[in-house]
Design brief:
The complex is a heterodimer of chains A (218) and B (207). By secondary structure, chain A is mostly helical. Chain A contains nine helices and no strands. In chain A, helix 2 (21-37) runs antiparallel to helix 3, helix 7 runs antiparallel to helix 8 and helix 8 (156-182) runs antiparallel to helix 9 (188-217). Chain B has helices at residues 41-48, 81-91, 97-103, 119-131, 149-164, 203-206; strands at residues 2-12, 15-26, 30-34, 56-60, 66-69, 137-141, 168-172, 183-186. In chain B, helix 5 (149-164) links the parallel strand 6 (137-141) and strand 7 (168-172). In chain B, helix 3 (97-103) crosses helix 4 (119-131). Chain B has 207 residues and is an alpha/beta fold. Classes of the chains: A mainly alpha (218), B alpha/beta (207). Chain A binds chain B through residues 2-4, 7, 10-11, 14-17, 73-76, 78-85, 151, 215-218, and chain B through 46, 49-53, 64, 66-68, 70-79, 83, 86-88, 90-93, 129, 202-203, 206.
Chain lengths: 218, 207
């Protein structure tokens, strides 16, 4: 399983691997929104948590269909399914690899982009923490969606439609953490709920995704 | 170590293609599957590999016993020959990468990316993966496609060596591999003509 993680990370950083795609998208959103909304600092500070979370979510969505589609096309997925690793483990590792190349970099650059959006300083810590705890859920839920649509040509649209509603709770609680944190209020409730979503999906969805893969490989 | 297939029926896209298939392969033997295009050779091999369930009948095989080589080689274009092989070797918890490279005549290509290999060289790399799988029963789907005569002979040697070590192989192929001890099974005899209901619940949604 470590070998699979290393391979996926290596593939992501080699040419054409898609590393940086989500990061560039996130950067664009954070740069363009202030230009579109105008230089009014108070308004920007107010919408910053929401914009940053929406940006991170869409950046994650951008690379979801690569999780399984590439392996399906070149036959690796058939071979992985017959290899001595459980398919549930394959799904979990691939979701982890996806998080390491999208969610984690997004989390690390987020404070920088928070400055661009005039996010109050008190909110930066909460922004990093909420993204750190919330983006794994995006990768795991996304891996489930990708497993459902793996056999389809150009399944990206269907994948987005399937996954977006499942992303909504994470988005709401994540943005709420930053909003409350920036305003100096208690963040306990949204933070705990968001972590629960992350833990719950990480525990359950690899099994669902593996079942979907088995059906799609028939 | 034995692969036993009894009274198996298989379907492709919800339509039964083969029924009543009985075969067994034991240590040291090879079985060549023949039959016209579309008869269900690939479908049968995928069923043996456990990638799809049979419509009826049972497939008995040793646990962790099979290595499947499909039409697609499962190579990553941006990884080198050695990296590709090392990945499959460690997934299977095996060593022997260097030996597999020498055996399949890939030594000169070891640091080349798979994207820059010719079709035949890719195929050789795909087959070298079998050597690092550590599995006893090889399921080979048209293993010799795009191989030249010398490579076919090389691969036949590899298969015979595998058999001599107590392995087994089931191959779907149209050409004569040069493995005289292999049994030949013509699948035309098992063509499905009855209509077994392919009632697998939600299959239609994923067709």
């Amino acid at each position: 399983m470590i070998a699979l993680l290393v391979r996926d990370l290596r593939l992501a950083i080699r040419a054409g691997g898609g590393f940086g795609l989500g990061l560039a998208f996130f950067l664009l959103v954070a740069v363009l929104v202030p230009l579109g909304v105008g230089p009014e600092g108070g308004l920007l500070a107010k919408i910053a948590p929401g914009i940053l979370w929406v940006g991170a979510l869409l950046a994650c969505l951008l690379s979801l269909d690569r999780i399984f589609a590439l392996d399906f096309e070149d036959g690796s997925l058939d071979l992985l399914a017959t290899a001595p690793i459980p398919l549930e483990g394959v799904v979990a590792i691939k979701a982890l690899a996806h998080w390491l190349v999208t969610g984690l970099p997004l989390t690390l650059v987020a404070p920088l982009l928070g400055v661009l959006l005039n996010l109050p300083l008190t909110g930066h810590g909460w922004l990093v923490l909420s993204l750190f705890l919330g983006t794994p859920a995006l990768s795991v839920i996304g891996a489930f969606g990708a497993a459902l649509t793996v056999g389809l040509k150009r399944g990206g649209l269907l994948l987005s439609l399937l996954v977006l509603p499942l992303y909504v709770p994470t988005l709401i609680f994540g943005a709420e953490v930053v909003k409350r944190g920036a305003a100096g209020l208690s963040v306990e409730a949204p933070l705990l709920l968001m972590s629960a979503i992350t833990l719950g999906s990480a525990a359950a969805l690899p099994f669902a995704a593996a079942a979907a893969l088995r059906i799609n490989l028939r | 170590m034995e692969l036993i297939v009894s009274d198996v029926a298989v379907a492709r896209g919800g339509i039964p293609v083969l029924e009543g298939v009985n075969l067994s392969v034991s240590s040291g033997t090879a079985l060549v599957l023949r039959g016209p295009n579309g008869i269900g050779k690939t479908t049968l091999l995928r069923t043996l590999a456990g990638l799809q369930p049979p419509l009826q009948g049972t497939v008995t095989l040793p646990p962790e016993g099979i290595a499947y080589a499909a039409h697609a080689d499962g190579l990553k274009a941006t990884l080198t020959v050695t990296e590709n092989l090392h990945f499959w070797a460690s997934v299977n918890g095996q060593g022997g990468v260097e030996e597999a490279i020498t055996r399949m005549n890939l030594a000169d290509l070891r640091d080349r990316r798979a994207a820059n290999l010719s079709a035949g060289q890719k195929r050789r790399l795909g087959l070298a993966r079998l050597l690092v799988s550590g599995r006893a029963i090889w399921l080979l789907d048209e293993p010799t496609v795009s191989l030249d005569a010398a490579s076919v002979a090389l691969f036949a040697g590899v298969v015979r060596e595998h058999l001599a070590r107590g392995g087994a192989a089931v191959m779907a192929t149209h050409i004569d591999l040069g493995i005289p001890e292999a049994e030949v099974l013509d699948l035309s005899a098992f063509r499905a003509n009855s209509h077994i209901p392919a009632g697998h619940g939600f299959d239609e949604a994923f067709a």
